[in-house]
Amino acid sequence: MSMNRRTVVKAIAAGGALIGAGVMMPRAAMAAWAESAFKADKQDAAMNALLGSTDTAESAEVTLKAPDIAENGAVVPVTVRTKMANVESISIFVENNPNPLVAEFKIPAGTEADVSTRLRMGKTSKVTAVVKADGKLYSAAKEVKVTIGGCGG
Amino acid sequence: MAKKILKVKAKASGDRTKVKMMAKHIMESGQRKDKKTGELIPAKFLQELKVEHGGKVVFEASLGTAVSKNPYIAFNFAGGAKGDELVLTWKENTGASATETVKVK
């Protein structure tokens, strides 16, 4: 009986410690969400707001994997990968979406510049991946045809 | 603690760890209309996602409304071993946020 009580007390103490750790997590330290870039309705404006420039160089070293034809615009699988060194971020734009910026991924040192995700496309559009490496912008683009848009409702 | 929304598979292989995550989230874009009332459904989507390993940030994502429902993101990072803990923090545009942990397999 006394053993049971002991385990229970221990469990409560451990649980309390866990909750405490959760509260102390530095939430404020998270990077600010680039609101102006995500709200922009033109690709150039979004790029400017996010990366400070629209001056991207098409590069064969940036690989953008996306389907030629997306039957369902609500789920378009996309992979961006590059072998470049010092990659800082990867961002994905869909030109004809109401808000062209889809997502931005920060790549800290030690993380491979190889990210897969799934995105929504309202209609047929050019998909552009922009890689920021060594302070410069490199891009790859691909036209993806959409049969059924993913933004309707 | 809030219900977990992230489903994560993290697997160490060689000198790197592959992470595949899927969040159970509607990712409401704020551009859809309610069919009955004709009013816009307010946006509700994940804005930020951060992954830490051993106190170091290994991945950080800012997401917009054009990310699919139940977002899936995969990436790899150097290091990590079986049994290591990954700390994932997410934040919604509504201000809601939570931290979840997962073990590397």
Molecular structure report:
Chain A: Keywords: Signal. The complex is a heterodimer of chains A (153) and B (105). Chain A has 153 residues and is α+β, with helices and mostly antiparallel strands. Chain A has two domains: 32 residues, no CATH class; 113 residues, Immunoglobulin-like (Sandwich). About 8% of the residues of chain A have low confidence. Chain B is mostly beta strands and 105 residues long. Chain B has one domain: Immunoglobulin-like. Chain B has no helices and seven strands. Chain B is elongated, with a radius of gyration of 16 Å. The mean pLDDT of chain B is 86. The interface between A and B is large, with 39 and 38 residues. Strand 7 of chain A pairs antiparallel with strand 5 of chain B, so a sheet runs across the interface.
Name the poorly predicted regions of chain B: none
Number of domain modules of chain A: 2
Q: Give the total of beta strands of chain B.
A: 7
What is Rg of chain A? 21 Å
Beta content of chain B comes to over 45%
The CATH superfamily title of the largest domain in chain A: SoxY domain
Distance between the termini of chain B: 24 Å
Straight-line N-to-C gap of chain A: 60 Å
Characterize the overall form of chain A.
extended
- How is the main sheet of chain A built? 6 strands, mixed
Mean pLDDT rating of chain B = 86
The CATH class of chain B: Mainly Beta
Query: Low-confidence stretches of chain A at least 5 residues in length (pLDDT < 50)?
Result: 19-30
Helical segment count of chain B? 0
Name of the CATH first level of the largest domain in chain A: Mainly Beta
